[in-house]
Design a protein that fits this description.
Creatine Amidinohydrolase, 2 domains, alpha+beta, 11 helices, Creatine Amidinohydrolase, Chain A, domain 1, 6-stranded mixed sheet
Length: about 400
């Protein structure tokens, strides 16, 4: 007997929330501006224990979070040092060359905008001297080793201290307005997928569907896509990170769709596996098992939300989902992590995986839960939802509202 049954009706775009309004965007901008001083203060509070007197950052999500300056997806590759920042106990310096000076001044009014040269080393000594820094924490994962050595040579009396994860840990704990934007991005994605259903039929290619879905998100209120949409049919669905191809939808196969929208910098991420025509008993069994694995992980969060047992770790939740699939014994468990945090980046803290931290999940936070089963050369199923966890209010909520039922689309 199969583990899942086919739902009778299909979702409609009108079932989901409308996109944010101009007043929503204006309100979020005001909230962010008022939140940034506290974010900087939390960063500075770490200085003493690490023995540093300044922090040099390069990650584009971090500069937006702390100063308001925005670089688009991938723009950091051509921006030179623009978007780098130096925070001391008294100053916030934002580097911006002539291409970005006006933008930086407008978006980061609390920062002191300084010239951002393409080559950082020649001006490094003067830059750190301007804030009186002698020991500087650096986002080491983003600074090439060769540049690190050149900075050391340029200012030999300034010690560089590798730092990673400070701002990322702060960003994992979501403010209410951040959660609102993730939820708004989820609603845009929900509506887009509901509108796409009529196009998922035999003869449509993976690339056709991916382009159609992106168009629906962009014209439906998204400022951008969170990442390139993935649409995979039949055997290609066994590729967890496959790219859309010219492969066509066929009756009796699955269509796996992984996609997300972006609203005011914040992202969504959802995966749904749909069926075209009557699903096979095997594919229904796989779908049901994946759904149970996801439900088991979410149930564990709900069971511990009262705080008596303490919130689970990302490693705990990953183990719950994988063990359920392994105990069934019919199909291989997924080899990727169970999930990841989301916000200004599609993948951020907290992580849910076999190698995740063994400490409790932060709160409030938003993360994905996305178990899957992949049968090489045959089929694949993944179900992914974004979960809001807020221990203080006892709230565990799926922000992705598109139903997780089995949908058999007309063939």
């Amino acid at each position: 007997m199969s583990d899942a049954s086919v739902a009778p009706g299909l979702p409609n775009p009108a079932d989901f929330a409308r996109p944010p309004t101009a007043s929503d965007l204006a309100r979020w901008a005001e909230v962010d501006a008022s939140a940034r001083p506290a974010r900087v203060t939390r960063l500075r509070a770490r200085f003493e224990s690490a023995g540093i007197d300044a922090y040099f950052g390069l990650r584009r999500e971090n500069v937006r979070y702390l100063t308001g300056f925005v670089l688009g997806e991938g723009e950091e590759r051509v921006a030179g040092t623009s978007g780098h920042f130096l925070i001391s106990g008294a100053d916030v310096l934002l580097l911006a060359d002539s291409r970005y000076t006006v933008q930086a001044t407008a978006q980061a009014p609390e920062a002191r905008v300084v010239d951002g040269p393409r080559d950082l080393a020649p001006g490094w000594a003067d830059l750190v001297a301007s804030v009186g820094a002698k020991r500087v924490g650096v986002e080491a994962a983003l600074l090439p080793y060769a540049v690190w050595r050149r900075l050391e040579a340029a200012a030999p009396d300034v010690e560089l201290v590798p730092i990673e994860g400070w701002v990322e840990a702060d960003r994992a704990i979501k403010e209410p307005a951040e959660i609102e934007r993730v939820a708004a991005a989820c609603a845009i994605a929900d509506r887009a997928l509901a509108g796409l259903l009529a196009s998922i039929k035999p003869g449509a290619t993976e690339r056709d569907l991916a382009l159609d879905l992106e168009w629906r998100m962009r014209t439906g209120g998204a400022e951008a896509v969170a990442f390139d949409p993935t649409c995979l049919v039949g055997p290609n669905a066994a590729l967890p990170h496959g790219s859309p191809s010219a492969a066509e939808v066929r009756s009796g196969t699955v269509v796996l769709i992984d996609f997300g929208a972006q609203v005011d910098g914040y992202r969504s991420d959802m995966t749904r596996t749909l069926f075209v025509g009557e699903p096979s008993e095997r594919d229904l069994a796989i779908y049901g098992l994946v759904a149970r694995a996801q439900a088991a992980a979410v149930a564990q969060i709900e069971a511990t939300i009262d705080g008596e047992l303490g919130l689970p770790s990302g490693r705990d939740l990953h183990g719950i989902a994988t063990r359920l699939i392994e105990a069934d014994g019919r199909f291989p468990a997924f080899g990727h992590g169970l999930g990841h945090g989301i916000g200004l980046a599609t993948h951020e803290q907290p992580l849910l995986s076999a190698t995740a931290l063994d400490s409790s999940l932060p709160s409030p936070t938003v993360f994905s839960v996305e178990p899957g089963i992949y049968v090489e050369g045959e089929t694949g199923v993944r179900i992914e939802d974004l979960i809001l966890l807020d221990a203080d209010t006892g709230r565990v909520e799926r922000l992705t509202k598109f139903p997780r039922d089995v949908f058999a689309l007309p063939d």
